[in-house]
Design goal:
Elements lengths: L8 H9 L7 E5 L5 E6 L6 H11 L8
Antiparallel strand pairs: 1-2
């Protein structure tokens, strides 16, 4: 009945992230919002990293406005 009854959290998040090709990250959190397990799909870049790169691309050199 419950396919994940004996599965580890790692196995569950791996299955979650593999459900959709466009998904890059999956996590299991507890009721308090703590991340119990998470995984980033191989070959995908973190959106946080991408955001930092795009922000730094728009910064002007010192003294220019």
């Amino acid at each position: 009945m419950n396919a994940y009854k004996k599965a580890t959290l790692t196995e569950i998040v791996e299955d979650l992230v593999n459900m959709d090709q466009s998904m890059r990250f999956a996590a299991i959190i507890d009721l308090k919002g703590n991340i119990l397990e998470s995984i980033m799909k191989k070959g995908k870049t973190s959106l946080k990293t991408q955001k930092k790169k795009s922000i730094s691309a728009f910064r002007l050199p010192k003294g220019e406005k």
